[in-house]
Design brief:
alpha+beta; eleven-stranded mixed β-sheet; four-stranded antiparallel β-sheet
Protein backbone atom coordinates (compact mmCIF):
# COMPACT_ATOMS: atom_id res chain seq x y z
CA UNK A 1 0.00 0.00 0.00
CA UNK A 2 1.04 3.62 -0.43
CA UNK A 3 2.54 5.28 2.64
CA UNK A 4 -0.65 6.84 3.97
CA UNK A 5 -2.69 3.65 4.15
CA UNK A 6 -2.50 1.80 7.44
CA UNK A 7 -4.22 0.15 10.39
CA UNK A 8 -6.91 2.33 12.04
CA UNK A 9 -7.41 4.52 8.97
CA UNK A 10 -10.67 6.04 7.79
CA UNK A 11 -11.63 5.70 4.13
CA UNK A 12 -14.23 7.94 2.52
CA UNK A 13 -17.77 6.59 2.81
CA UNK A 14 -20.40 6.78 0.07
CA UNK A 15 -21.61 8.30 -2.18
CA UNK A 16 -18.06 8.28 -3.64
CA UNK A 17 -15.84 5.24 -3.63
CA UNK A 18 -12.56 5.20 -1.73
CA UNK A 19 -9.42 5.06 -3.85
CA UNK A 20 -6.82 2.51 -2.77
CA UNK A 21 -3.35 2.34 -4.35
CA UNK A 22 0.13 1.07 -3.78
CA UNK A 23 3.35 -0.22 -5.25
CA UNK A 24 4.23 -3.54 -6.87
CA UNK A 25 6.22 -5.39 -9.50
CA UNK A 26 5.66 -4.00 -12.97
CA UNK A 27 3.01 -6.00 -14.84
CA UNK A 28 1.88 -7.96 -11.78
CA UNK A 29 -1.79 -8.28 -10.81
CA UNK A 30 -2.79 -7.14 -7.33
CA UNK A 31 -5.95 -8.52 -5.72
CA UNK A 32 -7.54 -6.18 -3.19
CA UNK A 33 -10.14 -7.58 -0.79
CA UNK A 34 -12.30 -5.85 1.81
CA UNK A 35 -13.64 -8.06 4.58
CA UNK A 36 -15.88 -7.53 7.59
CA UNK A 37 -16.91 -9.62 10.59
CA UNK A 38 -19.15 -11.77 8.38
CA UNK A 39 -16.54 -12.39 5.69
CA UNK A 40 -15.64 -11.12 2.23
CA UNK A 41 -17.42 -7.92 1.12
CA UNK A 42 -15.71 -7.14 -2.17
CA UNK A 43 -12.75 -8.07 -4.31
CA UNK A 44 -10.97 -5.84 -6.84
CA UNK A 45 -8.09 -6.49 -9.19
CA UNK A 46 -5.54 -3.96 -10.42
CA UNK A 47 -2.45 -4.22 -12.58
CA UNK A 48 0.85 -2.67 -11.62
CA UNK A 49 1.72 -0.12 -14.29
CA UNK A 50 4.81 1.92 -15.13
CA UNK A 51 6.92 3.82 -15.10
CA UNK A 52 6.71 4.05 -11.33
CA UNK A 53 5.24 0.60 -10.65
CA UNK A 54 1.93 1.53 -9.01
CA UNK A 55 -1.55 0.02 -8.94
CA UNK A 56 -4.86 1.76 -8.24
CA UNK A 57 -8.40 0.62 -7.63
CA UNK A 58 -11.67 2.21 -6.50
CA UNK A 59 -13.70 0.41 -3.85
CA UNK A 60 -17.45 0.19 -4.21
CA UNK A 61 -19.20 2.94 -2.22
CA UNK A 62 -19.57 1.90 1.42
CA UNK A 63 -21.88 2.95 4.23
CA UNK A 64 -20.25 4.45 7.30
CA UNK A 65 -18.96 2.07 9.90
CA UNK A 66 -16.50 -0.75 10.54
CA UNK A 67 -14.22 -2.34 11.50
CA UNK A 68 -12.99 -3.91 8.28
CA UNK A 69 -9.78 -5.47 7.03
CA UNK A 70 -8.22 -4.49 3.71
CA UNK A 71 -5.78 -6.86 2.01
CA UNK A 72 -3.58 -6.39 -1.06
CA UNK A 73 -2.14 -9.60 -2.51
CA UNK A 74 0.46 -9.96 -5.26
CA UNK A 75 1.36 -13.57 -5.98
CA UNK A 76 2.33 -15.24 -2.69
CA UNK A 77 2.81 -11.92 -0.86
CA UNK A 78 0.06 -10.02 0.89
CA UNK A 79 -0.36 -7.08 3.25
CA UNK A 80 -3.41 -6.70 5.49
CA UNK A 81 -4.60 -3.48 7.13
CA UNK A 82 -6.90 -3.85 10.14
CA UNK A 83 -9.42 -1.78 12.07
CA UNK A 84 -10.46 0.19 8.97
CA UNK A 85 -13.56 2.40 9.14
CA UNK A 86 -15.57 4.24 6.52
CA UNK A 87 -16.55 7.82 7.27
CA UNK A 88 -15.64 11.33 6.15
CA UNK A 89 -12.02 12.27 5.43
CA UNK A 90 -10.88 15.89 5.90
CA UNK A 91 -7.51 17.33 4.94
CA UNK A 92 -6.12 20.07 7.23
CA UNK A 93 -3.34 22.23 5.82
CA UNK A 94 -1.55 25.56 6.24
CA UNK A 95 0.95 27.12 8.60
CA UNK A 96 1.78 27.26 12.28
CA UNK A 97 -1.73 28.12 13.48
CA UNK A 98 -2.84 24.87 11.85
CA UNK A 99 0.24 23.04 13.17
CA UNK A 100 -0.39 24.27 16.74
CA UNK A 101 -1.20 21.15 18.74
CA UNK A 102 -3.90 20.31 21.27
CA UNK A 103 -1.18 20.57 23.92
CA UNK A 104 -0.88 24.31 23.22
CA UNK A 105 -4.50 25.49 23.28
CA UNK A 106 -6.61 26.99 26.04
CA UNK A 107 -7.88 24.32 28.47
CA UNK A 108 -5.39 21.88 26.96
CA UNK A 109 -5.57 19.40 29.86
CA UNK A 110 -9.35 19.05 29.52
CA UNK A 111 -9.14 18.74 25.74
CA UNK A 112 -6.46 16.05 26.00
CA UNK A 113 -8.40 14.15 28.65
CA UNK A 114 -11.44 14.08 26.38
CA UNK A 115 -9.54 12.23 23.63
CA UNK A 116 -10.57 8.83 24.99
CA UNK A 117 -14.21 9.62 24.17
CA UNK A 118 -13.52 9.83 20.42
CA UNK A 119 -12.05 6.50 19.28
CA UNK A 120 -13.76 6.86 15.88
CA UNK A 121 -12.02 10.11 15.03
CA UNK A 122 -8.77 8.85 13.51
CA UNK A 123 -5.73 11.03 12.92
CA UNK A 124 -2.76 11.05 10.53
CA UNK A 125 0.06 13.59 10.11
CA UNK A 126 2.50 13.90 7.23
CA UNK A 127 6.02 15.03 8.09
CA UNK A 128 7.19 18.43 6.84
CA UNK A 129 8.95 17.87 3.53
CA UNK A 130 9.81 19.78 0.39
CA UNK A 131 10.80 18.85 -3.14
CA UNK A 132 11.67 20.58 -6.40
CA UNK A 133 9.67 17.97 -8.31
CA UNK A 134 6.22 16.48 -7.80
CA UNK A 135 6.45 13.33 -5.67
CA UNK A 136 4.19 10.33 -6.07
CA UNK A 137 4.16 9.30 -2.40
CA UNK A 138 4.99 10.88 0.94
CA UNK A 139 8.67 10.60 1.84
CA UNK A 140 8.06 10.60 5.59
CA UNK A 141 5.17 10.40 8.06
CA UNK A 142 5.11 11.99 11.50
CA UNK A 143 2.04 10.13 12.76
CA UNK A 144 0.65 6.98 11.08
CA UNK A 145 -3.11 6.49 11.27
CA UNK A 146 -3.90 6.38 14.99
CA UNK A 147 -6.67 6.25 17.52
CA UNK A 148 -6.40 9.55 19.47
CA UNK A 149 -4.57 9.48 22.79
CA UNK A 150 -3.72 12.40 25.04
CA UNK A 151 0.04 12.28 25.36
CA UNK A 152 1.18 10.03 22.53
CA UNK A 153 -0.32 11.88 19.59
CA UNK A 154 -2.74 14.74 20.32
CA UNK A 155 -0.23 16.33 22.68
CA UNK A 156 3.03 15.17 21.18
CA UNK A 157 4.70 18.59 21.37
CA UNK A 158 4.58 22.18 20.22
CA UNK A 159 3.80 22.69 16.52
CA UNK A 160 4.19 18.99 15.73
CA UNK A 161 1.07 16.82 15.99
CA UNK A 162 -1.73 16.76 16.31
CA UNK A 163 -3.27 19.97 14.95
CA UNK A 164 -5.70 21.50 17.46
CA UNK A 165 -7.87 23.19 14.82
CA UNK A 166 -8.05 19.96 12.83
CA UNK A 167 -8.80 17.82 15.88
CA UNK A 168 -11.44 20.14 17.33
CA UNK A 169 -13.17 20.44 13.95
CA UNK A 170 -13.09 16.68 13.40
CA UNK A 171 -14.32 15.95 16.90
CA UNK A 172 -17.21 18.37 16.42
CA UNK A 173 -18.06 16.85 13.03
CA UNK A 174 -18.21 13.44 14.69
CA UNK A 175 -20.55 14.76 17.37
CA UNK A 176 -22.77 16.42 14.76
CA UNK A 177 -22.83 13.60 12.20
CA UNK A 178 -22.26 10.43 14.21
CA UNK A 179 -19.94 9.23 11.44
CA UNK A 180 -16.29 8.14 11.77
CA UNK A 181 -13.98 10.98 10.82
CA UNK A 182 -10.50 10.72 9.32
CA UNK A 183 -8.21 13.72 9.77
CA UNK A 184 -5.08 14.25 7.67
CA UNK A 185 -2.71 16.99 8.89
CA UNK A 186 -0.35 18.48 6.32
CA UNK A 187 1.10 21.74 7.70
CA UNK A 188 4.38 23.65 8.03
CA UNK A 189 4.80 26.89 9.97
CA UNK A 190 6.01 30.10 8.35
CA UNK A 191 5.28 29.02 4.78
CA UNK A 192 3.68 31.22 2.10
CA UNK A 193 0.80 30.15 -0.10
CA UNK A 194 3.17 30.05 -3.08
CA UNK A 195 4.95 27.05 -1.54
CA UNK A 196 1.63 25.15 -1.37
CA UNK A 197 0.74 26.09 -4.95
CA UNK A 198 1.39 24.15 -8.14
CA UNK A 199 3.13 25.86 -11.02
CA UNK A 200 -0.30 26.20 -12.65
CA UNK A 201 -1.40 28.53 -9.84
CA UNK A 202 1.80 30.59 -10.04
CA UNK A 203 1.40 30.98 -13.80
CA UNK A 204 -2.26 31.94 -13.48
CA UNK A 205 -1.36 34.73 -11.06
CA UNK A 206 1.74 35.95 -12.90
CA UNK A 207 4.17 34.93 -10.15
CA UNK A 208 7.69 33.60 -10.75
CA UNK A 209 7.98 29.83 -10.57
CA UNK A 210 11.68 29.44 -9.88
CA UNK A 211 12.40 31.92 -7.09
CA UNK A 212 15.06 30.39 -4.89
CA UNK A 213 16.14 27.56 -7.19
CA UNK A 214 19.31 29.35 -8.28
CA UNK A 215 21.49 32.12 -6.95
CA UNK A 216 22.02 33.36 -3.40
CA UNK A 217 19.27 32.42 -0.97
CA UNK A 218 17.80 34.67 1.68
CA UNK A 219 14.82 34.42 3.93
CA UNK A 220 11.99 36.89 4.13
CA UNK A 221 12.41 36.72 7.89
CA UNK A 222 14.57 38.99 9.97
CA UNK A 223 13.86 38.23 13.59
CA UNK A 224 14.38 35.22 15.79
CA UNK A 225 11.95 32.39 16.31
CA UNK A 226 10.58 31.08 19.56
CA UNK A 227 9.48 27.86 21.20
CA UNK A 228 9.47 25.38 18.34
CA UNK A 229 10.90 22.00 17.44
CA UNK A 230 14.17 22.78 15.60
CA UNK A 231 13.20 20.44 12.75
CA UNK A 232 10.32 22.78 11.91
CA UNK A 233 12.19 26.03 12.43
CA UNK A 234 14.36 27.31 9.64
CA UNK A 235 16.33 30.51 10.36
CA UNK A 236 18.59 32.54 8.08
CA UNK A 237 22.19 33.46 8.65
CA UNK A 238 21.61 36.57 10.70
CA UNK A 239 22.15 39.82 8.83
CA UNK A 240 21.52 42.75 11.10
CA UNK A 241 21.46 45.08 8.12
CA UNK A 242 18.55 43.21 6.54
CA UNK A 243 15.46 45.38 6.74
CA UNK A 244 11.76 45.07 6.05
CA UNK A 245 12.38 46.56 2.64
CA UNK A 246 13.72 43.20 1.44
CA UNK A 247 12.29 42.63 -2.01
CA UNK A 248 9.90 39.68 -2.25
CA UNK A 249 11.42 39.02 -5.68
CA UNK A 250 14.77 38.07 -4.15
CA UNK A 251 15.56 34.39 -3.74
CA UNK A 252 13.58 32.50 -1.12
CA UNK A 253 14.89 29.50 0.77
CA UNK A 254 13.78 26.21 2.27
CA UNK A 255 10.02 25.63 2.44
CA UNK A 256 9.33 29.20 1.29
CA UNK A 257 10.31 28.33 -2.28
CA UNK A 258 7.32 28.25 -4.67
CA UNK A 259 5.69 24.84 -5.18
CA UNK A 260 8.05 22.83 -2.93
CA UNK A 261 5.31 21.88 -0.43
CA UNK A 262 2.78 21.21 -3.17
CA UNK A 263 5.32 18.85 -4.68
CA UNK A 264 6.22 16.96 -1.49
CA UNK A 265 3.14 17.17 0.75
CA UNK A 266 0.02 17.71 -1.39
CA UNK A 267 0.76 16.03 -4.74
CA UNK A 268 1.34 12.61 -3.07
CA UNK A 269 -2.17 12.75 -1.54
CA UNK A 270 -4.10 13.45 -4.73
CA UNK A 271 -5.35 9.86 -5.08
CA UNK A 272 -7.10 10.14 -1.73
CA UNK A 273 -10.90 10.47 -1.78
CA UNK A 274 -11.74 13.50 0.41
CA UNK A 275 -14.86 15.05 1.91
CA UNK A 276 -13.40 18.49 2.60
CA UNK A 277 -10.41 20.73 3.32
CA UNK A 278 -9.66 23.07 6.24
CA UNK A 279 -6.97 25.74 5.70
CA UNK A 280 -5.26 28.19 8.09
CA UNK A 281 -2.53 30.23 6.43
CA UNK A 282 -1.50 33.77 5.59
CA UNK A 283 0.24 35.62 8.42
CA UNK A 284 3.70 37.16 7.99
CA UNK A 285 6.69 35.07 7.00
CA UNK A 286 9.06 37.73 8.31
CA UNK A 287 8.04 36.43 11.75
CA UNK A 288 9.15 33.00 10.79
CA UNK A 289 12.42 31.13 10.32
CA UNK A 290 14.35 30.49 7.00
CA UNK A 291 17.28 28.10 6.39
CA UNK A 292 18.07 24.93 8.35
CA UNK A 293 21.87 25.01 8.50
CA UNK A 294 23.33 27.85 10.54
CA UNK A 295 26.91 28.94 11.21
CA UNK A 296 28.08 27.92 14.66
CA UNK A 297 28.17 31.55 15.83
CA UNK A 298 24.40 31.74 15.37
CA UNK A 299 23.61 28.73 17.51
CA UNK A 300 22.48 30.83 20.47
CA UNK A 301 19.94 32.59 18.30
CA UNK A 302 18.34 29.32 17.26
CA UNK A 303 18.48 27.35 20.46
CA UNK A 304 15.18 25.70 21.44
CA UNK A 305 14.41 28.58 23.81
CA UNK A 306 14.31 30.92 20.84
CA UNK A 307 12.61 28.66 18.34
CA UNK A 308 9.18 29.36 16.91
CA UNK A 309 7.14 29.94 13.80
CA UNK A 310 5.00 32.54 12.13
CA UNK A 311 2.79 32.85 9.13
CA UNK A 312 3.46 34.08 5.66
CA UNK A 313 1.59 36.25 3.19
CA UNK A 314 1.25 39.59 4.96
CA UNK A 315 4.78 40.26 3.74
CA UNK A 316 5.19 38.22 0.55
CA UNK A 317 2.90 38.97 -2.41
CA UNK A 318 0.18 40.27 -0.08
CA UNK A 319 -1.86 41.92 -2.80
CA UNK A 320 -1.65 38.87 -5.07
CA UNK A 321 -3.45 36.76 -2.46
CA UNK A 322 -6.79 37.68 -4.02
CA UNK A 323 -5.55 35.67 -7.00
CA UNK A 324 -3.36 32.99 -5.43
CA UNK A 325 -5.91 31.83 -2.85
CA UNK A 326 -8.91 31.33 -5.18
CA UNK A 327 -6.54 29.83 -7.73
CA UNK A 328 -5.10 27.39 -5.18
CA UNK A 329 -8.60 26.28 -4.17
CA UNK A 330 -9.65 25.72 -7.78
CA UNK A 331 -6.39 23.93 -8.60
CA UNK A 332 -6.53 21.62 -5.57
CA UNK A 333 -10.10 20.74 -6.45
CA UNK A 334 -9.24 19.83 -10.02
CA UNK A 335 -6.17 17.88 -8.91
CA UNK A 336 -7.95 15.89 -6.17
CA UNK A 337 -10.90 15.16 -8.49
CA UNK A 338 -8.59 13.89 -11.23
CA UNK A 339 -6.23 12.06 -8.89
CA UNK A 340 -9.10 10.20 -7.21
CA UNK A 341 -10.46 9.08 -10.61
CA UNK A 342 -13.44 11.39 -10.21
CA UNK A 343 -14.38 10.25 -6.68
CA UNK A 344 -13.53 13.51 -4.83
CA UNK A 345 -16.22 15.98 -5.88
CA UNK A 346 -15.37 18.76 -8.31
CA UNK A 347 -16.37 21.50 -5.86
CA UNK A 348 -14.64 19.97 -2.86
CA UNK A 349 -15.81 21.93 0.23
CA UNK A 350 -13.00 24.22 1.34
CA UNK A 351 -13.06 25.97 4.72
CA UNK A 352 -10.51 28.46 5.98
CA UNK A 353 -9.71 30.70 8.91
CA UNK A 354 -9.51 34.42 8.31
CA UNK A 355 -6.41 35.95 9.92
CA UNK A 356 -6.52 36.68 13.63
CA UNK A 357 -4.30 39.39 15.16
CA UNK A 358 -0.67 40.24 15.80
CA UNK A 359 0.19 43.70 17.21
CA UNK A 360 -1.84 46.34 19.03
CA UNK A 361 -2.04 49.80 17.45
CA UNK A 362 0.03 48.93 14.41
CA UNK A 363 -0.18 51.35 11.48
CA UNK A 364 0.57 48.51 9.08
CA UNK A 365 -2.58 47.40 7.23
CA UNK A 366 -1.16 44.24 5.67
CA UNK A 367 -3.23 42.03 8.01
CA UNK A 368 -6.39 43.91 7.06
CA UNK A 369 -5.58 43.74 3.37
CA UNK A 370 -4.89 40.03 3.54
CA UNK A 371 -8.15 39.35 5.41
CA UNK A 372 -9.93 41.13 2.56
CA UNK A 373 -7.96 39.23 -0.09
CA UNK A 374 -8.79 35.93 1.63
CA UNK A 375 -12.36 36.52 0.39
CA UNK A 376 -11.19 37.45 -3.13
CA UNK A 377 -12.01 41.08 -2.22
CA UNK A 378 -15.71 40.32 -1.79
CA UNK A 379 -15.88 40.27 2.01
CA UNK A 380 -17.88 37.07 2.53
CA UNK A 381 -17.83 33.52 1.21
CA UNK A 382 -19.06 31.55 -0.58
CA UNK A 383 -19.03 33.95 -3.52
CA UNK A 384 -18.74 33.81 -7.30
CA UNK A 385 -14.94 33.56 -7.23
CA UNK A 386 -14.86 31.13 -4.29
CA UNK A 387 -17.88 28.80 -4.56
CA UNK A 388 -18.53 26.12 -1.93
CA UNK A 389 -16.16 27.72 0.58
CA UNK A 390 -16.69 28.79 4.18
CA UNK A 391 -14.75 31.05 6.53
CA UNK A 392 -14.17 31.31 10.27
CA UNK A 393 -13.64 34.95 11.26
CA UNK A 394 -10.95 35.11 13.97
CA UNK A 395 -10.06 38.80 14.31
CA UNK A 396 -11.85 38.92 17.69
CA UNK A 397 -9.91 35.97 19.13
CA UNK A 398 -6.57 37.72 19.72
CA UNK A 399 -4.41 36.49 22.57
CA UNK A 400 -1.93 39.12 23.68
CA UNK A 401 -0.46 36.88 26.36
CA UNK A 402 0.00 33.77 24.26
CA UNK A 403 3.37 32.18 25.13
CA UNK A 404 3.62 31.05 21.51
CA UNK A 405 4.62 34.42 20.19
CA UNK A 406 7.75 35.89 18.71
CA UNK A 407 11.14 37.25 19.68
CA UNK A 408 12.21 39.99 17.28
CA UNK A 409 15.16 42.34 17.20
CA UNK A 410 14.25 45.34 19.32
CA UNK A 411 14.24 47.14 22.66
CA UNK A 412 11.50 47.78 25.18
CA UNK A 413 9.62 46.27 28.10
CA UNK A 414 10.42 42.56 28.43
CA UNK A 415 13.62 42.78 26.40
CA UNK A 416 15.91 39.74 26.34
CA UNK A 417 19.56 39.43 25.36
CA UNK A 418 21.75 36.84 23.64
CA UNK A 419 25.29 37.12 22.29
CA UNK A 420 26.39 36.90 18.68
CA UNK A 421 30.08 36.21 19.24
CA UNK A 422 30.95 38.89 21.78
CA UNK A 423 28.25 41.34 20.64
CA UNK A 424 24.98 41.52 22.61
CA UNK A 425 21.80 41.19 20.56
CA UNK A 426 18.58 42.48 22.11
CA UNK A 427 15.24 40.80 21.55
CA UNK A 428 11.71 41.91 22.28
CA UNK A 429 8.95 39.36 22.87
CA UNK A 430 5.81 39.92 20.84
CA UNK A 431 2.90 37.63 21.60
CA UNK A 432 -0.40 36.94 19.93
CA UNK A 433 0.53 35.54 16.52
CA UNK A 434 -0.65 32.14 17.80
CA UNK A 435 -3.87 32.63 19.79
CA UNK A 436 -4.71 29.76 22.12
CA UNK A 437 -8.48 29.86 21.62
CA UNK A 438 -8.78 27.30 18.86
CA UNK A 439 -12.14 26.08 20.19
CA UNK A 440 -14.03 29.08 18.82
CA UNK A 441 -12.09 28.83 15.57
CA UNK A 442 -13.14 25.20 15.20
CA UNK A 443 -16.74 25.99 16.17
CA UNK A 444 -16.99 28.65 13.48
CA UNK A 445 -15.47 26.26 10.95
CA UNK A 446 -17.96 23.61 12.04
CA UNK A 447 -20.90 25.92 11.35
CA UNK A 448 -19.57 26.60 7.87
CA UNK A 449 -18.92 22.91 7.22
CA UNK A 450 -22.44 21.95 8.28
CA UNK A 451 -23.97 24.64 6.08
CA UNK A 452 -21.74 24.38 3.00
CA UNK A 453 -20.35 20.83 3.00
CA UNK A 454 -23.37 19.10 4.52
CA UNK A 455 -26.17 21.25 3.15
CA UNK A 456 -27.83 22.66 6.28
CA UNK A 457 -29.45 25.61 4.49
CA UNK A 458 -31.17 26.96 7.62
CA UNK A 459 -28.00 27.27 9.68
CA UNK A 460 -26.52 30.73 10.25
CA UNK A 461 -22.80 30.18 9.77
CA UNK A 462 -21.38 33.69 9.34
CA UNK A 463 -21.82 37.11 10.85
CA UNK A 464 -23.77 40.10 9.52
CA UNK A 465 -22.56 41.85 6.39
CA UNK A 466 -23.62 45.23 4.93
CA UNK A 467 -25.98 45.18 1.98
CA UNK A 468 -26.20 48.94 1.29
CA UNK A 469 -25.10 52.35 2.56
CA UNK A 470 -27.19 55.53 2.19
CA UNK A 471 -25.68 58.98 2.66
CA UNK A 472 -27.73 61.73 4.34
CA UNK A 473 -25.75 64.73 3.15
CA UNK A 474 -27.71 67.43 4.97
CA UNK A 475 -27.44 65.66 8.31
CA UNK A 476 -23.90 64.44 7.81
CA UNK A 477 -24.85 60.82 8.43
CA UNK A 478 -24.26 57.50 6.73
CA UNK A 479 -26.80 54.71 7.27
CA UNK A 480 -25.43 51.20 6.76
CA UNK A 481 -27.90 48.34 6.40
CA UNK A 482 -26.83 44.81 7.38
CA UNK A 483 -27.99 41.39 6.23
CA UNK A 484 -28.75 40.09 9.73
CA UNK A 485 -29.97 41.28 13.09
CA UNK A 486 -27.22 43.17 14.91
CA UNK A 487 -25.92 42.89 18.44
CA UNK A 488 -23.83 45.94 19.39
CA UNK A 489 -21.30 44.60 21.90
CA UNK A 490 -18.66 47.27 22.13
CA UNK A 491 -18.63 51.00 21.42
CA UNK A 492 -15.62 51.86 19.26
CA UNK A 493 -15.21 55.24 17.61
CA UNK A 494 -12.44 53.90 15.35
CA UNK A 495 -14.11 50.74 13.99
CA UNK A 496 -15.76 52.44 11.01
CA UNK A 497 -13.79 54.75 8.75
CA UNK A 498 -14.73 56.70 5.64
CA UNK A 499 -12.58 57.64 2.69
CA UNK A 500 -12.87 61.40 2.80
CA UNK A 501 -11.22 62.90 -0.25
CA UNK A 502 -11.69 64.87 -3.41
CA UNK A 503 -10.12 62.00 -5.36
CA UNK A 504 -10.10 58.25 -4.95
CA UNK A 505 -6.35 57.96 -4.44
CA UNK A 506 -4.69 58.65 -2.16
CA UNK A 507 -7.51 58.18 0.29
CA UNK A 508 -7.78 60.04 3.59
CA UNK A 509 -9.40 57.64 6.02
CA UNK A 510 -11.18 59.31 8.93
CA UNK A 511 -13.08 57.74 11.83
CA UNK A 512 -16.87 57.67 11.46
CA UNK A 513 -18.25 57.23 14.99
CA UNK A 514 -21.37 55.16 15.52
CA UNK A 515 -24.29 57.35 16.64
CA UNK A 516 -27.06 54.75 16.56
CA UNK A 517 -27.54 51.01 16.08
CA UNK A 518 -30.90 49.58 15.04
CA UNK A 519 -31.94 45.98 14.53
CA UNK A 520 -30.32 45.89 11.08
CA UNK A 521 -28.76 49.34 10.67
CA UNK A 522 -25.78 51.31 11.88
CA UNK A 523 -25.78 55.11 11.64
CA UNK A 524 -22.40 56.80 11.38
CA UNK A 525 -21.44 60.45 11.91
CA UNK A 526 -19.45 62.13 9.13
CA UNK A 527 -18.75 65.39 10.93
CA UNK A 528 -15.01 65.09 10.33
CA UNK A 529 -15.37 64.89 6.56
CA UNK A 530 -15.62 68.15 4.59
CA UNK A 531 -15.15 66.54 1.18
CA UNK A 532 -16.60 63.63 -0.75
CA UNK A 533 -17.20 60.29 0.97
CA UNK A 534 -15.70 57.84 -1.49
CA UNK A 535 -15.43 54.68 0.61
CA UNK A 536 -16.26 52.90 3.85
CA UNK A 537 -14.37 50.26 5.80
CA UNK A 538 -14.87 48.36 9.04
CA UNK A 539 -12.39 46.71 11.42
CA UNK A 540 -9.52 47.61 9.10
CA UNK A 541 -6.68 47.09 11.57
CA UNK A 542 -4.12 44.51 12.56
CA UNK A 543 -5.80 44.21 15.97
CA UNK A 544 -9.37 45.43 15.41
CA UNK A 545 -10.81 44.65 18.85
CA UNK A 546 -10.25 42.90 22.15
CA UNK A 547 -11.19 39.30 22.81
CA UNK A 548 -14.75 38.64 21.64
CA UNK A 549 -15.42 42.36 21.87
CA UNK A 550 -15.67 43.67 18.34
CA UNK A 551 -18.52 46.16 17.89
CA UNK A 552 -20.92 44.06 15.79
CA UNK A 553 -22.13 40.47 16.11
CA UNK A 554 -25.27 38.58 15.27
CA UNK A 555 -27.51 36.95 17.93
CA UNK A 556 -25.69 33.66 17.34
CA UNK A 557 -22.45 35.28 18.56
CA UNK A 558 -20.68 35.44 15.20
CA UNK A 559 -18.71 38.62 14.50
CA UNK A 560 -19.39 40.86 11.52
CA UNK A 561 -16.41 40.35 9.18
CA UNK A 562 -14.24 43.28 8.11
CA UNK A 563 -15.00 44.95 4.81
CA UNK A 564 -13.80 47.66 2.47
Amino acid sequence: FASYYGDHMVLQKKPPGAVVWGHGELGAVVIVTLSGPSGLIMEKTAQVKGPSGTWTTVLDPMDQGGPYTLTAQQGLEDVTLRDIYFGDVWLCSGQSNMAMTVLQVANASQELAAAAHYPYVRIFAAAPARSDVELEDLEQIDLPWSIPTAAENLGHGNFTYFSAVCWLLGRSLYEALGSPIGLVEVAWGGTPIEAWSSRRVLQACGLPEDTGREGPQISLWHGACFNLNPALCFAPPLNLALSSSTSPHQHLSGPQVPSVLWNAMIHPLLNMTLRGVAWYQGEPSFLSPGVEQLPLSHRALTSPSFLGTGEANTFLNTDQYNCTFPALIADWRRAFHTGSLGQTETLLPFGFVQLSTYRHQSADDSFARLRWHQTADLGVVPNARMPNTFMAVAMDLGDEHSPYGRWVLGWGEGVGMEFLGTSPIFFLFLGSIHPRDKQNVAHRLLLGAKAVAYGDKELVFQGPYPTRAVLEVTRGLLNVTYSQELVYRQRDAQAFEVCCSSQASPCQWLPAPVVAVGSHTVTLALSGCRMLVLGLRYAWAEWPCEYQACPLYNPQGLPAPPFL
